[in-house]
Every structure is written in C-alpha cells, then in structure tokens.
Amino acid sequence: MALMSWNVRGLGNKETVRALKNDAFKFHPSIIFLSETKQKRKYLEKIRRNMKMENSFYVDPLGIAGGLALWWTKEVNITILNAENNFIDAEIVYNGKEVLFATFIYGPPYVEDKQVFWDKLSTLRSNPSDKWCIIGDSSIVARQDEKIGGANFDVSQARRFFEFLEKSSVLELPIKGGNFTWSNLRSKGDAILEKLDRILANIGWSTLFPKAIGILVVAITSDHSPIFLLLKGLNKRSKKTFKFESKWLLEEDCSLNIN
C-alpha cells in the first residue's frame, strides 16, 4: 500500500491535474491526500472518478483558499474520525484486520495559528499502542539545513514542532529524492528552498512497516512537491527513476520560469 500527499496549490489548471495523474500512475497509491485544492467538490469528484479512486472525503475551501481532499480505493477501509481546515484524522483498516491511524495535515501559514494546530494534533491519540502516521505539509522549517535562501528559519516555531514530536512520541521518517519539498519557483539568487512536507510515525507504525520509505517527486506545477509513503519499500525489480535535486535550482545553468 502507498499513500500520496500533495499541496497542489489549486487543482484548477490542466497541467496540475495531468501531473497528479502521472505521479499517481508511478506508485499506484491506495490513498491520495490533496491540500489547498481551492476547488468545489463537484469538480474534484470528476477528477477522482477519472483516477479510479472509489471513495472520498472533503473539507471545503474557505472562498478560494485552502480545501482538503482525501481519496481512497476499495482496497482500504477508512473511517473519518475528525476533520478541520488543517487536517483530516482517519482510522484505516489494513489487510482486513490491522487497525491503523493516519492524520493528513495542511499546516496553517500564519504564526499565530501554528501553536493551536500542533496542540490539537497532540490530543488526537490518547492510546500509546495506536499505530499512527502523520503525513502532509507541516508548514514548519525544523532546522537551518532545511532551508536555503530567504530569512533564517524561525527557532521558536521549530521548538514547538520538536515539543510536539516528543509529546506525541512520533519520529520523522526520511524522504528520498531531494532535500527540499517547497520552492518559491525562482532561480539563481532569488531562489528559496525549504523542507515543509513531512512523514511522521510512532513506534507502533514503524514496527509494522519496517521497510516503509518516503519518496519525493519534484513537480513544477505547484510550489510543493508531492511525497509518497511506500509501506513495503521500493520494488527492487522496478526501473530506476530520475531523481531531481531541488538545490539544482540555485545553479546558474538551471532556470525555472513559471508564469
């Protein structure tokens, strides 16, 4: 089973929809989480049905801002436990018997909302034996080496993030394919690169899926790149895929212009 998470920065353009379909085709995710959809359900449902995802749950955007979509196939049984503008919390029955918990996040961009967000997440699991994974846009730079360009990262926000990790007993899983998941889509001296999208898991989840691995696939139709969580790891027989290192955007010979 694979999970996909992507802050799409709006699904209103055909290139983004095409990129979504192409990336999903590579890894065949059973669960797709999209944030910042900026679209009404009727439009999103057309895309979901075209992608053969049988089930859906939505948090509608506020005007033309935000919006969450969770799609899943008939291979998994999902019950939505809680949902707000910045997260969807779900129970997943895996292989017909294993009960898992997954929280799909879209971290608030404003500093004044971040503490409330992490406080809410920390209350979602009260049973330490729950197998729990968190995936999505954290909207947090946790370390200085997770950022190139722009102002220094916010130490106080990073501290809150690590306090959440400790309180919730979750650790961050590595993501292969690049060091940064967000870019301001500029090149050379104006480029800013950050790691914002993350996969977190507690011991119970990590023990159940010891080969799980995160994969980043660079997209130029959004400022965020989609990430995949492959629970059984990479298929050794599959062909090697081209890996784009996001810091290449800083090189003079690599120009990226998005209008």
Automatic annotation (TrEMBL):
Residues 4-224 form the Endonuclease/exonuclease/phosphatase domain. Pfam families: Exo_endo_phos. It comes from the Eukaryota. Signal peptide: none annotated. This is Endonuclease/exonuclease/phosphatase domain-containing protein.
